Please model this.
Amino acid sequence: MQPFELFVGLRYTRAKRRNHFISFISLVSMAGIALGVAALIVVLSVMNGFQKELRTRILGVAAHVQISGDNNTLAAWQGVAALAAKHPEVIGTAPYITAQGLLSNGQTVQGAMVQGILPGRETEVSDLAGKMKVGSLETLRAGEFGIVLGAELARTLGVSAGDKVVVLAPQGRVTPAGIMPRVKQFTVVGIFEAGMYEYDAGLALVNIDDAAKLYSMGDRVSGVRLKLKDMNRAAQVARELSASFGDDITISDWTRQHANFFRAIQIEKNVMFIILLLIVAVAAFNIVSTLVMAVTDKQADIAILRTLGASPASIMKIFIVQGTLIGVIGTLIGVVGGVLLALNIDVVVPAIERVFGVHFLAKDVYYISELPSDLQSGDVTVIAAVSFVLTLLATLYPSWRASRTNPAEALRYE
Model:
């Protein structure tokens, strides 16, 4: 692009026009682009924040990688854990027993997932120890038949620390009267709140030795749970570990166990991106109106430039510069505003709530009562790039129309 085209394009952008309505439309287009870009950045940052918060809460209970055997049984788990620990990404291992059970207290019966753990090693693979509301995991001592319940599960059963609950295991034992379910009374020694209803309402923890007795596991376990340095490499680590074990060992990671959940969040994020991008698109296409009117307003100038030797391509570039500058300024304002708002949303939202006397996420309804924000540079880059492309495309038709101006026709009535 020649310097004079850039100079004239910039001059047209800041020059006072005979038709002030054109300037007003330019400002509206710029404001619309800025608003759309800022809204996109803030909304995607909030959705990233929710995704990160949910992932953190899920992985505070679930393992990054899980190794299990056929029929939910694994013998000699110590050797399996030792072999898995040799992987450079593995920083923690712990055995577990998991099975379905019915918990009852008086006339109240509730199904739950009963998980046997080694309290001393559970802290290596989960954050449950830090989510205890009452008691601690260390109180799950072998032979004492203590049980730790999720907060919602304890509320449903109507029990608190020190109360008794009866656990019925589906694995029955043969008696002269027929097959009878295994029944054992446990003492509630703790209550945890993970912040995920799935776990708080359906998970009960016992000592792994007590679980082995209840479910007749002997010295076997259900599997081994692993914690990694980088949870985002779970799928890769699972594939690498699969090569180290036989076909009778099953290895899964958290991305497969909760695939549908996180896929749904990603789909919602993509849909919101498309919907909010329409705001930017509408504002960008306002540039078409601005430039069409600007071309009409500058007919005489275009004719003079043509008679002085400017080519149609040069005329087109002049108006592309003018329209693109509107888009670039709007995009930059939107990026700066969106980034500042996304980084300070924990301050802005509470201030709005105080002013209007409302609470967007009530604590008694939602587990996540504050809007989280996770600003990602990749999202900002994509939003800015798409906004720039839309504004550039919006300048093409009016600029082409300007390049087709006939000097003689334009100057006829001047």
